[in-house]
Design a protein that fits this description.
By secondary structure, the chain is an alpha+beta fold. It has three domains: 63 residues; 124 residues, Beta-Lactamase (2-Layer Sandwich), CATH 3.30.450.40; 209 residues, Hypothetical protein af1432. It is 56% helix and 9% strand. Helix 2 runs antiparallel to helix 3, helix 7 packs antiparallel against helix 8 and helix 12 crosses helix 13. The longest helix has 43 residues. The radius of gyration is 32 Å and the shape is elongated. The protein binds ligand C2E, succinic acid (SIN) and fe (iii) ion.
Length: 436
């Protein structure tokens, strides 16, 4: 169709010339013949125009990433082209076995079961229905009209099918001006409907992949947090704080998505840390802490098995750098500041923010101002001053988020923070000199 259409477009100026020539020739002929000739040339011209519109819309398919905007445009163009008063594009919701109007020109959202009404029948059978009078058809469901006060008469309804022939949705045009929809209208709608189907199917496939990806990394985070009561909800909270800090630094879109994925997975390596260290009530000794440190490189090691989408390739690297420090004394690699991904510096701040505001086996929950005091001390040698500026700017929002996330905090237990919570500070901060 595309090749044919291109030829049509290129020929258009000539075709117009030919029409004019024929008109001139027709001038000397009897009235009836001239009228017939004009009608024929009018039909040819409108066929060319239709192709132009169809091609324009098809071309836009390549460019438009917003499915709703595209479908809206298609519905408008189709209604205009077919001389219809309204157009509706329904998409099938397979989970609920319903049709819902993704685009409804001149009407509110409509939902009804597959099988009901004309659109529901088309969704079920996969066959086009063209009827001049809706109310004369027993399949017609008058409910939407009754609710909206609109009066439907002629109706042309086309099934939008995916690659495998399954119906994805229904494209419907309503009330042809001055008559009913013709055979030629059916063909036009079939072309446009096929394009709309491609757009809907692509968007659905992309949305499905996104959901799979998102739920997969959330599942990984949940499994590591479930290792231990103490880390419960930690990954999710760090992700929320990282997002707030990222936004405060002006991040949007893909950068933010990458940051969130890295935050969600930063402690994944803790899945391999033994309970005796993970759940130790008090301060870790040197050897224990050395062992605990392995979790950061384990994060990189495990995530290396996951094939990330191209634009997410940095996620494992960002995740595994969350304990690197600005002065190069962090772990696992002891990277210098300029080698630490900015995303990892944000995750580091978000991680520490949660470790301090939430309770741990080895420390009580600190209030936000105590947390900020401790983090200020860490700014420079450990935390990035630029990131900390963003943290300060975002403080009101961070405080709101802490309140919101409190229900996800670990519950106090007998051995853990239940006893240590009595203390004003963790052993670590009470005797900071004992650790580098
Ligand atoms: P985490 O509990 O999620 O803590 C993450 C990071 O927050 C820590 O990384 C540290 O930079 C900061 N942080 C946590 N608690 C404190 C604190 O009381 N004071 C200050 N100033 N900063 C704090 P770090 O130190 O590399 O520790 C990594 C992980 O090792 C911790 O994750 C935790 O699971 C474990 N860990 C560290 N120290 C201890 C400890 O004394 N006792 C126990 N049981 N576990 C510890
Ligand atoms: C749908 O049309 O229901 C799926 C596509 C999307 O959510 O963008
Ligand atoms: Fe960590």
């Amino acid at each position: 169709m595309t090749g044919h259409g291109k030829r049509e477009r290129r020929k258009r100026p000539d075709r117009r010339g030919a029409v004019a020539d024929r008109r001139a020739a027709a001038a000397g002929q009897p009235d009836a013949e001239r009228r017939q000739g004009e009608r024929r040339s009018h039909e040819r011209r409108s066929t060319g125009e239709k192709l132009d519109v169809i091609l324009d819309i098809t071309r836009q398919l390549m460019a438009v990433t917003d499915l709703d905007a595209l479908l809206h445009h298609m519905a408008e163009a189709t209604a205009g082209l077919l001389g219809a008063d309204r157009a509706t594009i329904y998409v099938i919701d397979r989970e609920r076995n319903e049709l819902w109007s993704r685009v409804a020109l001149g009407a509110g959202e409509i939902r009804f079961p597959i099988g009901r009404g004309i659109a529901g029948t088309v969704a079920l059978t996969g066959e086009t229905i063209n009827i001049p009078d809706a109310y004369a058809d027993p399949r017609w469901n008058p409910e939407p009209d009754r609710l909206s006060g609109y009066h439907t008469k002629s109706l042309l309804t086309f099934p939008m099918k995916g690659n495998d022939g399954r119906v994805l949705g229904v494209f419907q045009v309503v009330n042809k001006k001055g008559g009913h929809f013709t055979r030629s209208d059916e063909e036009t709608l079939a072309s446009l409907g096929a394009s709309a189907a491609v757009a809907v199917e692509n968007a659905q496939l992309i949305a499905e992949q996104k959901r799979l990806w998102q739920s997969l990394i959330e599942t990984l985070a949940i499994t590591v947090d479930a290792r231990d009561q103490q880390t419960a909800g930690h990954s999710q909270r760090v992700t929320r704080y990282a997002e707030v800090i990222g936004r405060s630094m002006g991040w949007t879109g893909k950068d933010l998505e990458k940051l969130q994925a890295a935050a969600l997975l930063h402690d994944y390596g803790k899945i391999a840390v033994r309970d005796q260290f993970l759940q130790k009530p008090g301060k870790l000794d040197e050897a224990e802490f050395e062992y605990m440190k392995a979790h950061a490189e384990k994060t990189a090691e495990f995530l290396a098995h996951l094939v990330f989408p191209l634009d997410m390739r940095e996620v494992p690297m960002i995740a595994s750098q969350h304990h690197e420090r600005m002065d190069g004394k962090g772990y696992p690699k002891g990277l210098n500041a300029d080698r630490i991904h900015i995303g990892a510096r944000i995750v580091a701040a978000a991680d520490i923010f949660d470790a301090l505001t939430a309770p741990r086996y080895y420390k009580p929950a600190y209030p936000v101002d105590k947390t900020m005091e401790l983090m200020k001390e860490m700014t420079g040698p450990h935390l990035d001053p630029r990131v900390m500026d963003a943290v300060k700017r975002a403080l009101p929002e961070l405080e709101r988020t802490v309140e919101q996330l409190k229900p996800t905090w670990p519950k106090p237990t007998e051995e853990g923070m239940g006893t240590i919570a009595e203390a004003a500070l963790s052993e670590r901060d009470a005797a900071p000199a004992t650790k580098t």
